[in-house]
Amino acid sequence: MPFTRAQRPLYEVKANLFKGLAHPFRIRILELLSTAPERSVADLQAQTGLEASHLSQHLAVLRRHRLVESERRGSHVFYRLGDPAVGRLLAVARDLLVEVLAADGDLLRDVATLPALAAPETPGADRS
């Protein structure tokens, strides 16, 4: 059943939330923030190895999607998760990742049970 006209904006907000999560460095930033009440920009930069401008862009995306909050204190800016649920979401995502990797590991191990393939013939090769 398609969603209603009233539901569409809700699904768009939800999709945008996932867009905010859709970058490896943003996930890493959120993971770092989930392990401490807050972190300074300098700390995030040191932990991620990102240039200041790139870190700033990622933090702006996270702020826009309300995944993080910031607070300026003097010349320093500190970030924290926008909601504790973000930390729980990251934990569930990590559990899912472990399950996916385990399943892939099983598939990779099962590849060894496939019958061998004949090597393709090289066109123009001498068949004598």
From TrEMBL:
Keyword Transcription tagged: yes
Entry's transmembrane regions: none
GO molecular function: DNA binding; DNA-binding transcription factor activity
PROSITE patterns in the record: HTH_ARSR_2 (PS50987)
Listed SUPFAM superfamilies: Winged helix' DNA-binding domain
DNA-binding recorded as keyword: yes
Positions of the HTH arsR-type domain: 6-101
Alphabetical UniProt keywords: DNA-binding, Transcription, Transcription regulation
Superkingdom of source: Bacteria
Alphabetical list of InterPro entries matching this protein: ArsR-like_HTH, HTH_ArsR_DNA-bd_dom, Metal_resp_trans_reg, WH-like_DNA-bd_sf, WH_DNA-bd_sf
Name of the protein this chain belongs to: Helix-turn-helix transcriptional regulator
Natural source organism: Microbacterium saccharophilum
Lineage, broadest ranks: Bacteria, Bacillati, Actinomycetota, Actinomycetes, Micrococcales
